[in-house]
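Q: You know discrete backbone vocabularies at least as well as I do. I have my own habits and do not want them to colour yours. No explanation is needed for now; the record alone will do.
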Amino acid sequence: MTSKRIVALIGICFLLMALTYLVGGGEILTRQVIHPLQFHVRNDFGYGPKFNSRIKIYAVDHKTMSYVGLENIPIDDWIVLFHALADANVSAVLVDKTFPLPLSKDESKIRQLREAIRKTAPVTAGAFFVEKPMAGFSEIETRSLGFNFQALEQLPVLSGHVYGPTSDLIRAFSSVGHTNYEDHGFIKPIIRTRDDSAIAFWGLDAAGPINEVNGELHINNHHVPVNSDGDTLVNLAAAEDYWSRTRSLVGLLKRARSNQKLNELNKGDVVLIFADMVQGTSFRNTPAGTMPGAFIMSAVVNSAFENNWIRPIGGELIYLLFAGILGAIVALCLRPIAFILAISSITFCVVGAPIYFFCTEGVDIPWGLSLVAFWMNAGVLFTEKARHSDERSKHLHFSLAGMIGPKKLERVLKNPQHLQLKPNCQVLTIMFIDIVGFSVNAKDQNPEVMFQQLRDHLSHIADVVHECGGIVDKSLGDGMLCYFGYQFEHGDTENSAHAEQATDCAIRIQKEALVRNLAASVKGSPVFPLRIGINTGEVFVGDMGGSKKIEFTVIGHTVNIAQRLETACEIYRILCGSSTFEQLKGRTELVAESTRRLIPIKHQEGHAEVFEINPFSDRPDLIADALKRYRKTYGARTEETRVMIKSDQPVYVNTKLGTGLILDRSLSGFAVEMDEVIGCGTILEFTFNSSDGVFEKLCREHGVHKITGEVRWARLVNNSYRYGIQLKDLSVDDRRKLLEAFASVDRSNDSSNRRAA
């Protein structure tokens, strides 16, 4: 994938996560999923909060109601109960009852109750806050808690009403605390109703003084975590723990009525009385499960006395950013199996570590949205990478199929990142293969049949090249370009024997081609002999196809020379450059079978020394038969009428490479016999020489001055070389004049012979 696409995808993921965060998605996820998970895991493994042994919980339950015979505890029972609690020397009494209505019309009873409450240790009554006024309840005024509210920015002023004990009782209580529950496990430790007054949560002031330190809320000199909404997460244990600690108030009432000492209470205990708690009523949904609201209040009081608040760790946006980047790195850097393992491991750590610290340290790390960001970035980028990889794999398969062998292709497709695509310079052995005679034979054959035959030939040659460790660069119509020694993948072992490898491959190709051609000629099918040129040297190799196409190829002077060697080669032969042949010096059998030749090279002065390898030196009869069959098929379509030159008046040609005897002539050229080894494609300038000078004179008379020809074929006959010379740069008229000169010499020779006879 391109860097722009990667950045765009990451940006989109982060934008979605930012929007989710801004609309409160992280908070919803945390409150409805993360917190319930953490509380249940903690409680299941027994890591719940330690409960203060001084706190004693009593509930007005069904037993209590049955004992008093009323729906509410009468004022007389409250009086005796508070006297008994005063005698027990407890440190604090917390009653959740709000006492919104007068308990009696008897003023003396009310007075006795006030005295009993005042006699008891500090007693806190319950109250509740609502936004809209409610009829029939006693509204109370909030008060200053003795510290600077303005410094606590996280405590907003809320408009509403606080309802609590009636006016005839409120002054008897040392304090009044609200019992509002915010759902999802949160309470507001302080509710501000005005800039300078507030009401604390029920029981907090019993634990110690409430104040502000450096902009943070403190109770009993301990920090109380408050979020930006002014809420605090309650450190809840499992409901079963609270049930096991809750006793029925009926026991205290019985002993209080009998003026007995409350032996179950110790000096300094904190007594929690839940006057409206009847099993099956007032249940709330919390992260630790469904439980009575009284248990939430008990947990808050316990946290205040034990200082075991849940401490949230901020920086959710930082975690989200880090998790998203980590997900992108994992997706982009890892392969599928490693990716799955990494995702599993990181997910386990992201989930496990925060849960561990929540259970053991009471630390609340905001990991929910971060995990989603990690999954989103990892999933989106890995999916896109997989899609891109699949497209690239198909593209590679399409581009490389036929270029390299099936096994190597499979390895490349599994590890495409190891593929060397950037152009680089390497020393390789280049091999050009040409199918001779295809174009001529194609004129008289069914195109579909000819293309099928050509496809079969090229496919067979490509298979041999692959088996020999070579790479097929491309098919060139009726030919092929291959190379050996290229390190196709990073980490491939360097191949220093590629010249020998290419030569062995060429020999095998020629031998198998001859067998195929002999079999084809027996059936009357066209035969297609091969020419092969091989050269070793530095080339530039790499992907030249651009961004939308992969096209491996080789370029350079070495490639051009290899192609020139192929054109200068004879059929069923292999023509090697001197650099390739130098690498074969250790192969004595190849050196013995080779023949030195000279060919011209474009942009190179003089003639280059090359070496011809005959793969059939041990079977001259076989190659002779194959050449005969080829000439029978090919020559019938191409040969012109050739006239032999009579030996009694020989005509010679002089060239820079030596002198030769002309054997026959035709309109397009002539055959010459020379001792020198010349490669096909060599361009020669000729001057003629005859023993009596007649031929030269005739050429001048016919206006034929400069003769240039190209070596088109070469054959070894009786330790000398015969070459077919094709005239160049001569018009048809000049060629006819040259033939007339030859004919005049022949007529002159015939006249001389008759006179001599």
